[in-house]
Amino acid sequence: MNRLHPIDLEHWPRAEHFAHYRRHPCAWEMTVDVDVTAFIDAVRVAGVKTYPSQIWVLATVVNRHDEFRMQLIEDGRPAVWDVVHPTFTVFHPDTETFSALVVEYDNDARAFHDAVVRTTETYRDDHRMFPQGDERRDTFDVSTLPRTSFTGFALHLTGSEDHLLPIVTLGRYRQVDGRTLMPMAVRINHAAVDGFHASRFVAEVEELFAVPSWIR
Are 141 and 169 in contact (CB under 8 A)? Predict the structure, then answer.
């Protein structure tokens, strides 16, 4: 069973920072270019799909760190999930709408990839926005703009001060000096995550894309 574990505020080094950004809510975004040259080559050789593999990278790094699995409990204290699962978007060309799907995270990249493929096929023609329901709380959001590359991206979430989990948006690849770059935007709630944590997230995502030995 996936559980939320309350943080001991008396012994948490970020307790003061958390309290400050709860009194003065602050969310921020950053957009970076991630080198996916080696990743693209590995995906092609292995014959696997790009999007499920991208989602696995993001979910793997998110689940390494408590600050990216944080959510408030009923009394307003922060707590950390054992694991959080990615919810991702699937486009319906016939109606130009999308559905949001969720697949439980698996540390095995191929097992996760195959689960995403099966889930996508199951709901490909289901045009509801949340065909699996939207009652789960142990999820973080991934979306993609596969037809558009960008150098900046911002989300404006009204009344979202309590939303501590990250939101990641991916864009279309572009070629720069013989390398393949992918824009990635990360939306952060400062009550949970500081610049150090976000920079570490980016560095670990970059490393998994640069050394894709996990693809098989």
Answer: no
Contact 81/3 with Cβ under 8 angstroms?
A: yes
If we measure between CA atoms, which residue out of 107, 59, 81, 56 comes closest to residue 192? 81
CA distance 22 to 180: 39
Dihedral sign computed on CA atoms, order 109, 64, 71, 22: negative
- pLDDT digits over 48-77, tens only? 999 999 999 999 999 999 999 999 999 999
Establish whether 190 is a catalytic residue.
Answer: yes
Task: Give the Cα separation of 174 and 176 in Å (integer).
Answer: 7
pTM greater than the 0.85 cutoff: yes
Q: Where are the alpha helices (DSSP H) in the chain?
A: 15-23, 37-46, 50-62, 109-123, 195-210
Catalytic residue among 20, 113, 190, 197: 190
Nearest to 184 by CA among 193, 194, 171, 196: 171
What torsion, rounded to 10 degrees, do the Cα atoms 20, 26, 60, 3 define? Answer: 50
